[in-house]
Structure formats: structure tokens, C-alpha cells
Amino acid sequence: DAGVTQSPTHLIKTRGQQVTLRCSPKSGHDTVSWYQQALGQGPQFIFQYYEEEERQRGNFPDRFSGHQFPNYSSELNVNALLLGDSALYLCASSLPRTETQYFGPGTRLLVL
Amino acid sequence: GEDVEQSLFLSVREGDSSVINCTYTDSSSTYLYWYKQEPGAGLQLLTYIFSNMDMKQDQRLTVLLNKKDKHLSLRIADTQTGDSAIYFCAESPNSGYALNFGKGTSLLVTP
Predict the structure, then answer these.
(1) Which residues of A touch B97 (CB under 8 A)?
(2) Contact A103/B35, CB-based, under 8 Å?
(3) How far apart, in whole angstroms, are the C-alpha atoms of residue B90 and residue B43?
(4) Residue-wise pLDDT tens digits, B81-92
(5) If contacts are CB pairs under 8 Å, which of residues 16-55 in chain A contact chain B?
């Protein structure tokens, strides 16, 4: 049983560019959450998708957007990249209204 | 969001017990979690506790919750070198919704 998978594992972009990160949830899970973890910090909640809709959103600008597909996989898009967007981006999946969120290994984004 | 505070570092000797502490400010926190992160890896859920519980034990792990003081602790018995990692405390007012994390406690286990 595959866990949460994310692609790519590493990515280097320059300021002003756009990036798309991808997440496949754990088998049987239909809810996907995205978190940003800056170096030396705890993860910060970006948003959560359920039934292809954004269900909850954290304190992130509109440059951060997402999508969930019918197969429950999800994408995180970041436009107009800033140096401060450099971080580990974590995806977590869960069944709706359950306690356990399972995290993927993350995508490490470096913005130069 | 509301604050979750943790001490940054803890060093223990192999075989000793480790106690990692966490305080939170959101009185509506219903679910409290402990996650482990090893270098270069994602987060592994260790255990969680509901706010109506005082204690939960799972093998070498014991979670204590003082809801009045909004204080959560994780005790690791017989700490091993493989337990060296960063431990994150997190809270959520509703099951399955956004997790609010602390900055993490870096645990170093020395032989």
C-alpha cells in the first residue's frame, strides 16, 4: 500500500517564475492538505481540498492556489515566486473528519 | 493563528527517558498531536490525544495533557539513538482540519 507521494522531490526556480507541485494521497484517502515548512520552522497550513473544493485556507496570499482532481490527487501552484517561498512543501492526506493526517516526504523548493 | 510553543533542544543519554513539552493557547483545541521528523524526511504521526483525556500510552510513548494549563508532554521511555529527530507538537480544533504546529524540539540521543 503506497503512502502519500509527492513530485518532484527537489526543484530550483528563479524569482517571478511559477511552479506546480503534485501530490497523490494514500490509498482510500480523499482529503488533501498542503503545508509550507521553512527552514527551522514548523509546518504552516496552506489549504485543504475535499471533493475537489477548497475546504479551508490558511494565511497565504492568492499567489498560492490549488486543485484537486477526481482521483483525489492534488496540485499546489505558486505564481510570481519570491525568495521567501523557498521551503519544504508537504502534502498530507486523510479520510474526512478523521484524526490522522499522513504526510508525504515533501518537495524542497529553492527560489534564486 | 494561535500559538504552540516548544523548547528548541533536548539532549539525553541512550536508555534514559525523554520528556518533550508543549504549550498551546487555543482553548478550543480538541485534538493534540505529536509528529516526528527525521532529516530530509516528511512528518510521521507518533500519537494523538483528545482534549477530554488526561493521558495516553502507546508502547514507549506516554502523552500527558493538562487542559487547564494548556500543557502537553511526550515521554519517550528507554530512548534510543534512532529516536534522534525533531518532534513537533500540533493542535486542531476539529478532526481532520488544519493542524497548527509548534517550531519543533530537536532531540539528540547520545550513546
Answers:
(1) 48, 56
(2) yes
(3) 12
(4) 999 999 999 998
(5) 31, 33, 35, 40-45, 48
Write out residues 75-104 of B within 8 Å (CB-CB) of A.
88, 90, 94-104
Question: How do B61-66 and B71-76 pair as beta strands?
Answer: antiparallel
Residue A99 · residue A111 · CB < 8 Å: no
pLDDT tens column, B16-64? 999 999 999 887 778 899 999 998 888 999 999 988 889 999 999 999 9
All 3 cell numbers of residue A20? 506546480
Question: Which residues lie below 8 Å from residue A6, measured CB to CB, with a gap of 6+?
Answer: A21, A22, A23, A24, A89, A90, A91, A104, A105, A106, A107
Taking residue B37's Cβ as centre, other Cβ atoms within 10 Å add up to 22
Tally A–B CB contacts below 8 A.
62
Bridge partners, residue A54, by sequence: A49
Q: What is the pLDDT of residue A37?
A: 96
What percentage of chain B exceeds 70 in pLDDT? 97
